[in-house]
Amino acid sequence: MSDLLRPRASLRTAVVWEVLKDALERRGKAAGRDALDVLDTGGGTGNFAVPVARLGHRVTVVDPSPNALFALERRAAEAGVADRVRGVQGDARGLFDVVERGGYDTVLCHGVLEYVDDPAEGVRNAVDALRPAGTLSLLAAGLGGAVLARALAGHFTEARRALTDPAGRWGEGDPMPRRFTADQLTDLVSATGLQVGSVHGVRIFADLVPGVLVDTEPGAVDALLKLEAAAAEQPAFHSVATQLHVLAERD
Known about the structure:
With 251 residues, this protein is of the alpha/beta class.
């Protein structure tokens, strides 16, 4: 079963998936083609790549991990889309060593900018992989969500450190190398010449609600999904989201 279909996993991916699915449909209509060429940078085991392929699109996944690419191949085969999913080993910095420049209708750059040495270069490479009329889906860790989570856990010094640290890290033990605000992400995208279409907060509430409530209360998952969707586009909630999603297009 795709992670996008698992109830708990859907809380982490539903907002992004719905935005992405609509964007692919619009891009397909504009291009006059049912099947698009999609590049998923850092796509790992195919959490998004396989569902995108199930919509009929051709997906190339670039990831530095051979183990992740092996899992991707197995998952694609199990989903019956092995002929539409291709995995190649590489990273955002050397992207054009393994894929074609300007060869894709849509590029997914999910969970990449947190780990690259130069986020601006990472965004530029993702954009350079797009065809003249293309769509970028960018997902990255949000600063405000981490600050709020540390504060609610009683780690007030760490929360303050994350708030003031240039990379948004709460300490040496922080597993996340970098976090972003919505303004930082939109500035990175706008600098490439793309037009930002929408910004969504992701996992605004899901990471804060006790798991026992979601798992045991009847209808809780569905209600929480609806709450996440309702708050996602409201700028007031972007500052407390665990992740931020930016959708951008070339005019």
